[in-house]
Amino acid sequence: MRRKDFLTALQIAATYIGTVVGAGFASGQEVLQFFTRYGTFAIIGILSTTLLFFILGLYAMSLGRLHGVHTFSEVSDLVMTKTSSRVISFLLLLLLFGVTIAMMAGSGALLSEQFHWSFGISALLTGVITALTLLLGIRGMMSVNSIIVPILITFVISLFAYVWSTTQGTVIHSAIPLVQTPNTIWALLLSAFTYAGFNVGLSLTVLVPLGQVADRKKILVIGALLGACGLGLLLLLLHLLLVSIYPAGIHYEVPMGYLAKSLPPMMRYGFVFILWAEIFSTLLGNVYGIASELSRHAKHSYFRWVIVILFAAMMVCQVGFARIVSVTYPIFGYLGLFILFVILLSERRIIRL
Q1: What are the domain boundaries of the chain?
Q2: Is the pLDDT at 180 greater than 70, yes or no?
Q3: Do residues 328 and 98 touch, judged by C-beta distance below 8 A?
Q4: Which of 127, 155, 304, 345 could connect to 300 by a Cys-Cys bridge, CB 3.0–4.6 Å?
Q5: Where are the transmembrane segments (predicted)?
């Protein structure tokens, strides 16, 4: 493979990872709810999720390349009736805007709590950085994720190594099952499928245009594989870190925050940066997806929509991060899974790249 093609595959992988991870991922809450609570069985779920991330992610990117389209709504127009396409596109945009509000609120809460800035200034700073990045469209998003994601993976590996060294490796051996029922394995597999499905569903407006970035089948396959493996590695390491703080830490709203309290100052600041960067990368993907879809159907330019979306999100996010997440995230998750299923059932072609 040519060096240029491999670098493109790495950028695709980084953008995939950056779009999936978010505040819930970095806080440890998603990993706890979907995997760690199953104890020693969690690794089976993580491996299953990694495989699903590869299959579903590649499928979503392949839709863009197969149909020669740059937005999710173009795919839905091709594989559904006009009415169904409009309904699904509207639901997806509503879903993405809801998550955008949550990410904006999360960035405001994080920076205001850690640095004692006002909530409004904190959210505004994140919004300005997002707008400047999206001036370059999907290429700008890919470039930023190519920086953020390696830092994220390096930090999580370093954090795991630090905890391993301070606990003499008991982080592995203390994996006590938290949930054990006759149907534990089936519940875990359903959890893995749900987690992968709704995360890919949430990422469709980014994954579909990513299919147009690669000019060869092999680039997409490698990009999807590296992205899935990166997500799987992060899930595994975060799971083991959560096991290391069992049982006290798992009862915290932000489990990884409990672990961060025991870290040296530099690592604590690193954790804050990583959490913000994950919020930022998710915000990039959501705002890009909404703006590209709206600019296809409305008169305003793509970047004008970026500004409108960010301004609206900053206004609504004043209600607070915790309230937004607790009320809307379960709904958003299953709506994303539903949208992905509709696309899978509607697309009857065998994808031949």
Answers
A1: 3-346
A2: no
A3: yes
A4: 304
A5: 38-60, 90-111, 117-137, 144-165, 185-207, 219-246, 266-290, 302-321, 327-345
